[in-house]
Amino acid sequence: MTDLSNRKPFCTIVDNKNIVVVVFGNELNELSDNAMDAGDPFWYIMGTDAWFELQEIGGQPLLAACTYDKTYFHCPVDEQAIALLQEESGVLVLFPQVPLNAADIKQTSDLEEMREWISHEIGEDKMDGLIYCFYTAEDKKKYHGDN
User: Fold this and answer.
1) What residues contact residue 120 under an 8 Å CB cut-off, 6+ apart?
2) Which of 47-56, 80-89, 98-107, 138-147 has the weakest average pLDDT?
3) What CA–CA distance (Å, rounded) separates 112 from 103?
4) What is the pTM of this model?
5) Handedness of CA 140, 115, 2, 20 (dihedral sign)
6) Rounded to an integer, what distance in angstroms lies between the CA atom of residue 133 and that of residue 48?
7) Taking Cα atoms as reference points, which of 32, 52, 51 lies closest to residue 42?
8) Mean per-residue pLDDT for 12-28?
9) What share of the chain is helix, strand, coil (3-state, %, to 5)?
10) Contact in structure between 2 and 98 (CB atoms under 8 Å)
11) What is the spatial distance between Cα 32 and Cα 49, in angstroms, rounded to a whole number?
12) 103 lies in some domain
């Protein structure tokens, strides 16, 4: 099995409209028990349990995976992704067990097509996916108060 532990999470855009974050390690494993089945291709994590938000560190915008008391990781995010995040409320997070670059991810028009690509081209045993909420500063204040 390929060692992916030194690969950093990254953010990419699929079909010019969907934000995808790829995570190679076990950074979010402790949250997996909170996943809920929506009957859609991917399960999801309630925004009350965990979410993504924009943070700025050293003048660089970063996408951060957070809970109330922990930031799990940061990954760089570009201007196109920032603009999309202001319109979107979710982030698809992929957990591959194989090396995967942004260029490797099939450009699909919807989540069902993405699930089929994973199932047929990658293998469901080699990649999982979960949908997380994305919160703007206003959303975070609305749903989580001043914390």
Assistant:
1) none
2) 138-147
3) 19
4) 0.88
5) negative
6) 9
7) 32
8) 87
9) 25, 35, 40
10) yes
11) 11
12) yes
CA-CA-CA-CA dihedral for 85, 22, 116, 127, to nearest 10: -150
Q: Which amino acid is at 99?
A: P
DSSP 7: P
Contact 135, 88 (CB under 8 A): no
- Write phi, then psi, for 55 (nearest 5 degrees): -135, 160
Give CA–CA dist 11/105, Å, rounded. 11
**Above 90 in pLDDT, residue 102?**
no
- What per-residue confidence (pLDDT) applies to 3? 67
Does the residue 66 lie in any domain? yes
The DSSP letter of residue 35 is E
Structural domain count of the chain: 1
User: By the 8 A CB rule, do 79 and 34 touch?
Assistant: no
Q: Which residues pair with 52 in a beta bridge?
A: 65, 134
The answer to whether residues 8 and 22 touch, using CB atoms and an 8 Å cutoff, is: no
Parallel/antiparallel/unpaired status of strands 10-14 and 18-22: antiparallel
Is residue 55 very low, low, confident or very high in pLDDT (cuts 50, 70, 90)?
very high
**Domain with 77 in it:** 10-144
In a domain, residue 1? The reply is no
